[in-house]
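Could you help me review a protein record that somebody else here produced? My question to you is simply how this chain folds and whether the tokens agree. Thanks in advance; the entry in question is below:
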Amino acid sequence: MSLTAGSTFGAYLVGPLLGAGGMGEVYQARDTRLGRSVALKVLPDAVAHDPDRLARFSREAQALASLNHPRIAQIYGLEEVESRTALVLELVEGPTLADRLLRGPLPLDEALAIATQIAEALEAAHDAGIVHRDLKPANLKITDAGSVKVLDFGLAKIYFDEAAPARDPSLSPTITAAGTGAGVIVGTAAYMSPEQARGSRVDKRADVWAFGCVLFEMLTGRRAFGADTLPDTVVRVLTVEPDLQTLPRSTPPALVSVLKRCLHKDASRRLRDIADARLQIEDVAGGISTASGATSPWYARHPGVGWVVAAVLALIILAIATVAMRRERPDAPALRLSFLTPRSGNAFKFALSPDGRSVVYEDLIDGLPGLWVRSFDQEDGRPLAGTVGADAPFWSPDSRSIGFVADGVLKRIDLGAGFVRTLAPAANMRKAKWGSGNTILFGASAGPLYRVSADGGQVTQATTLLPGQSSHRMPQFLPDGERFLFVSTGTADVRGIYVADLRRPGMHRLVEGDHAFDFLAPSHLLLVKDGALWAQRLNATYTGIEGSMLPVAPHVLVHSTNNGHAALSASAAGSIAYRTSAGQTQLVWVDRTGREVAALTDADDTQWDNVFLSLDGGTVAARRTLNGNTDVWILDALRAQPRRLTFGSTIEGEAVLSRDGRRVVYASDPKAGLWDVYERAADGTGLDTVLIEGPENESPRDVSPDGRYVLVAKQSGTTDYDLWALPLGDHEKPFAVTTTPFAEMMGRFSPDGTLVAFDSNETGQFETFVQSFPRPGPKVQVSKGGGRIPRWRTDGKELYFLTTDGTVMASSVERSGSNVTTGTPRPLFRLPVLQRFVWYAPSVDGERFLIPKVASADSPLTIVLNWKPPQ
């Protein structure tokens, strides 16, 4: 868990949080043994055991331990407590240089003094063979005495040259993503050297470049390569020279020369050693202190001439800038960058803002999943209060508001004001889009698209299903704000990507088949086909496609059960963001405290979810995604011998087992987005028996202990999800177990078959209830404050469910005739962060739980800048 003020971490009394970012969380603390204040740096919970982050942590410790310089914040040691490691660092008081620059540029003498000290620190690091790689004002502390301390060697890289001692090459982080050629960008965009921005190999000259950027900013009060968006910043770093005309007129020519040499885009022509810059700056500083009687420049002594010259220069600069602005975008190189993002959220929950300046994504807010926003000109993101439990985030066209759905309700948050507004009910919403006409389009897992004003109000139907279509989803507005694209699921003759118009009925199919997609303004579809990302040009009227499909990326993560949904987002500014993996999971047994006691499967290139344990405790059914295929697999609960039960190109959904584990009932989507229900032998022999095949979504939830019924979650257009009992035989017809206007999505028979536990959102959030079966009686609410995915102990005397933060709760259940009473729920343990709302399975005695565990975190977010079709 994150540290809290007042707690202890070994011998250290933890104080307030000083700062947090991708490289760790830093707390003020008190060393109770030595009686001094220190800084404790720990990795955030979500990545505390991530091998890549741990390796960086280790690099930082080793880098700092090898340095002993008054201008570099020192490391005092490492402290390990219960498998958590903290760096114990020197606590440096005072503001950062970034704080100081908020007041504007620095006086020349102050800037030179600070620059000299920064250069001294870098010189010491380079002499030790260490490159900082993330030098910037936020990593430079200025003490009250005016002394500089360089912080944060979390991205430090060992390099080799004639002057550097030999180092272990394993300490050097990987720069280029394997197989893609995409550079993994480390550092902060506005201070990156061109070779860093390209993902090329870096050496100490990258720090020389960053030093030049910091010196320029101290003298001018503005960034050398600042821009409104991340793509523009990177483009400026690669293509635009710093505007030296913004330097103060009093800047000595020798200092201008230093800046030019530090900021040369060709590393071979850049200053090789920071010591050279330090010596020249010291000479400039010495010259200033002795030149009080120096003669002013000629233009200062002739102000009239100076104004004329300034005007002429301004016209020349304006002309050059105009040409540069016209040429910059067309000539800008296409770049593919990868950014480390928080690993505590859903891999699919992110969206680029239309202006390309920010991204919204999921991370933890006070331990619960919520939405965060990061502007690309900022190092860290910020949480959005009121968005806990949010799903399917999307942006307003002006990039000032974010829409989302939570607890079946469509909401929006205005970033400036910070308050959340409720717009409309939107149960089971898949994705939404906000058009320039202040209209929001959204769809569910079944049914047509709907529209509502972005200010709230009446919800009206926006599309009409054609025969054979099961759902319209994933809307994308075209540039005019009236026409839009969407995915249709259903039978092969009607599924595909369609274009429609808010002003008139009707729709036209553009692309046949199953595709996740997005729209890349002004004229291309981004299509995911066979796991790869392609671009397809639309014609001028958006009524058809033209030309060949063009490759964009070799692999994009596609949702295993949600057709038309990929880890993909495009901005109106022309950027593309995607992920290639959701990470690896394995099935593990944990005890009632959450401590892992045994692994059922290995950690490999696979994902496991939706585990189901037979009532006798001997057989496990689970869904496994391997090499892009999602199928049902069967395992022995003790010996972990997985065998694949289903084959083919269709996606398989939930699978449940009979009491003895010999029969399997599972969902499949041969109609792409419309779940049907099948039964077959668990040993794989024989053929499938079709149990349900129809125009609605149905998924199995349990098989009754006597084998007579399958409990099925059934979705219709009028009542959302309800639970139905499907007889396994011809002796009776299916009948409803719950029928309400609300969603009853997860259910489970009691071990004796006389009760059904289920969750429902009828109170405004999902809670767990129990009622009798087969004749429904009064409902008994078990949970308070949220309850999902109920499970029974085999003796029926204990019921488990999940809270909104993924905590497994246990409640006693007592029977007296037809009366059911439940005890006060008590917490057992919290599921891993990335697996908050998955199926889990208690053992027969309730002493262990089988859960999917994240074995490796998801991949970085890859950003494609300035992609253009080949000419």
